[in-house]
Write a structure and sequence with these properties.
The protein has 443 residues and is of the alpha/beta class. It is 41% helix and 15% strand. Bound molecules: adenosine monophosphate. Adenosine monophosphate binds next to helix 3.
């Protein structure tokens, strides 16, 4: 039987009230599957990542249990221990407990490194119901006798894969050794590598398993391609692409500048297409009118700058064309996220000139994907394509000037170093690959 509403779950009324106030109507798949098992007292192995609603999946049944079986607090002790790898996650989880448990009486606190120990020691003195902690600092407190884990009834080990990546395995094992044997344990990881499986077996007793496939990221949902091409040849290619797209759904063309967007509209319209631009120099009323026509389907082509396109949520956009590449890789994900919405098939084609090559390299790095090269058009820039394939950077490419002027360059190694030396530093970003930053990439 599939659970389709929170009403069907055996949660106490104050919890349901809090969910109602949060406007949660339907349990997410992990909630629908995990909550009944946890309410039965089962141990749980959950393969799921952040964004699936797993925090509510574990905190609701735990809060329910605390509510049904209130007990006096024990000094330095906690009834619930949630172990999570980062401060940010710890803070979010603690806030979730507060939100879902707002109509219950319970005490909770946070323990993590990088801040003073004394307030944490003081908060733990009288004991708490729920302790959310990161392993390193919790272990310090344990070793110093400031926290006692012998009263833990519910133990949640969250984001285990990240925990191990961060080198917390030994700390976690020491903490688990300090827990009582009789407890209910919940174990969450996005993946189940052998080492993680072993750890799960050592912690859980006859667990139920729930596995939630990660939601596809924008970059995975949209069919992307790149055309390597000289700047001067882009317009011709654009007209060809627009011709091929006639009567096949709505198109958004991205231009980096307002001036470029206006110019492009004129050119497109002079070739018998119908387009309008939205950008910061048009009044809100003009933009709204254009957008309304586009949404209705009476305007097939929208030419937009990045800022103007934020929040454009139109279902039938089947093609996004990046006339020029954004100088911020994140903007690329926002742009292509305008298509492929609500399950529709989405395509995105990007025109990359030698001057923009580094922007393109940044984009592939951010989405952790190679974008297929379309070499079937007459102006295919083979030299740039082969440089790219070899992992080298076009000598014409520069990051600093929006790819407009020609200048230095060299190989990719060199350009990455220069990024570290000052102008633009970016962490190697695996977020989309791991699906972890879906909130942002969904855009
Ligand atoms: P989590 O995976 O626990 O980090 O949750 C991801 C986001 O989904 C959080 O912002 C939650 O507030 C939200 N959320 C969790 N469960 C539900 C639900 N059943 N309905 C709507 N939003 C939810």
């Amino acid at each position: 039987m599939t659970i389709t509403s929170f009403e069907e779950l055996a949660l106490a009324a104050p919890l349901k009230r809090a969910l109602f106030e949060q406007n949660y109507a339907t349990p997410s798949p992990i909630q629908a599957q995990a909550i009944p098992l946890l309410l039965e007292g089962r141990d749980l192995l959950g393969i799921a990542q952040t964004g699936t609603g797993k925090t509510a999946a574990f905190s609701l049944p735990i809060l329910n249990a605390l509510h049904q079986d209130p007990r006096p607090l024990r000094r330095k002790s906690a009834r619930v221990l949630v172990l999570t790898p980062t401060r940010e996650l710890a803070t979010q989880i603690s806030q979730s407990f507060a939100t879902y448990g707002k109509h219950l009486r319970f005490k909770h606190t946070l323990v993590f490194g990088g801040v003073g120990k004394n307030p944490q020691i003081r908060a733990m003195q009288p004991g708490v119901d729920v302790l959310v902690a990161c392993p390193g600092r919790l272990l310090d407190h344990l070793n110093e006798g400031d926290i006692d884990l012998s009263g833990v009834e519910y133990f949640v080990l969250d984001e285990v894969d990240r925990m191990l990546d961060m080198g917390f395995l030994r700390d976690v094992k020491k903490i688990v050794a300090a827990l009582p044997r009789k407890r209910q344990s919940l174990f969450f990881s996005a993946t189940l590598a052998p080492q993680i499986k072993d750890l799960a077996h050592s912690i859980l007793e006859n667990p139920a398993s729930v596995s939630i496939a990660p939601e596809k990221t924008t970059a995975e949902k949209v069919a992307q391609k790149v055309c390597f091409i000289d700047k001067e040849a882009k317009q011709k290619l654009l007209l060809q692409h627009l011709e091929a797209q006639r009567n096949k759904g709505l198109t958004i063309i991205f231009s980096r500048t307002k001036h470029g967007a206006n110019k492009l509209c004129k050119v497109i319209n002079s070739h018998g297409f119908e387009s309008e631009a939205i950008h910061g120099n048009r009044s809100q009323a003009q933009r709204d009118r254009t957008l309304a026509k586009f949404k209705k389907g009476s305007l097939p082509i929208l030419v937009a700058t990045d800022v103007a396109a934020r929040g454009v949520d139109v279902k039938d956009v089947t093609l996004v064309i990046n006339m020029d590449l954004p100088n911020e890789a994140e903007a690329y994900v926002h742009r292509i996220g305008r298509t492929g919405r609500a399950g529709a098939a989405g395509h995105a084609v990007s025109y990359c000139s030698p001057e923009e090559h580094e922007f393109f390299i940044d984009i592939e790095k951010l989405i952790a994907q190679r974008i297929p090269v379309d070499s079937s058009h007459p102006d295919h820039h083979e030299e740039l394509a082969s440089l790219h394939a070899q992992g080298r950077t076009s000598p014409l490419s520069t990051r600093d000037n929006g790819g407009k002027t020609r200048g230095g360059g060299g190989n990719r190694g060199r350009s990455r170093n220069s990024a570290h030396l000052g102008q633009r530093t970016r962490q190697p970003n695996q977020r989309n690959a791991s699906g972890r930053s879906r909130r942002r990439s969904r855009a």
